[in-house]
Amino acid sequence: MFSRKSFSLLRRGLGLLPKLSSFVGFICCSVLVLQFSLGAEDKLVIMSPHWEGIEREFDRNFKAWYKSKTGHDVQLDWIDQGGSSSDFRFIEAEFKRVPEGIGIDLFFGGGTDNYMKLAEMGLLRSFKLPEEELNRIPKEIYGIPVYDSQYRWYGAALSSFGIMHNEFLRQRLKLPEVKTWQDLTQPGLLGKIGAADPRESGSAHMIYEIILQGYGWQKGFALITQLGANVRSFSAGSNAIPKDVVKGQVIYGMAIDFYAYAQIAVAGKEKIKFVIPPDAAVVSPDSIAILVGAENLEVAKEFVAFTLSDAAQKLWVLPNGDPEGPKWPGGLNRASVIPALYDKLGERCVVPNPFTRNLTPIQYDAEKGGIRWDIVSDLIGTLVIENHKNLVRAWKAINKTEDLQKRAAAIQILGEVPITEDEAMRLSETEWKKSDFRNRKLKEWGQFSREKFRRAQKTVK
Predict the structure, then answer these.
(1) What is the average per-residue pLDDT within 85-98?
(2) Burial of 186 from C-beta contacts in 10 A (0-12 / 13-18 / 19+)
């Protein structure tokens, strides 16, 4: 391509050829314009915690869809900070620094709680789908909204949360069958459970929040603490857990459904199992939204529309061998937000229809979950994860005792929480954004947890 300097020199030379200058100049300018138009393409910047398979499939298929619709090429830039919770914190921090826009057009992936918080902060741009498209999507599923009433975010897929296990190794090691969250607290499962840090993983956080809402604040934290004592180690991302289950590094894993289904597709239904615990079941949207100040607004709208089209929704539910399905090995294994699509595709779907599954989900309060998101993650991080060695030591001592009365007393101590649910809600709406206050409380809670583990262990001596 010509530089500005070379073009200027060319024009100067053409001045020596007055009879040809206008014609040759026209040809040269036409070449420049043509080269510029061929090199130009539309752009979209997406913040997403989605794994590689989803990004590859949506990147490839959207480019083709966009080209056929607009005649333009489009370049997609995918950004991730390590998980949906990390992505949310990054977006929040960047908007504090640059309120008018942060150079990111879309947030794609993660549960509704983070999207509700961003909407409440005024950081999401409303975009209403055409009525014909919108009417295909139910407003809610099992009491949870599938899209925002002001159209600031949409559920792009549906997720459920449960327990996957390596059935081959479970039988070989003669370990118990696990069907509920409570089952994961059995003493014989010490070191055999995989789980993720809720401060880093949004799907991990959702599992803990579901348990808290299903069991209640006090009983829920007691269950999480005992379950946490059986965890081998806490990973930063929840995507590592299903792989650990398949490899046999852990026998049981707390997982979002599509991670489990992806491993089942590779390893086989006989080896890997997945159950949605009936004691606290939730089906939740995995969402998408346009951020305020999106520089590529029209392209962002097209991506949202594409994501909720039949073409994109089929990528979630069809196997990679299907002509309309994904090319990624093993498929994407997500549930569609369009009920009619299951009737249309029938047995071609590899993911169960969430709208007809025999579930009795809890009445999950997404607004409550969003408000207390940070403080719940911090409580679990401080009480269970950061003091995990002390917790495991106390748990081992408790399960060695044959005195049932002492054991019950020690377990009660183990499940103590430093604040009530009402206090957690109040702090979340007032003090928790103040770093000095938060750091002081985290230090107090760390000391609280170490002390209660010592008391629990002393109780059974």
Answers:
(1) 93
(2) middle
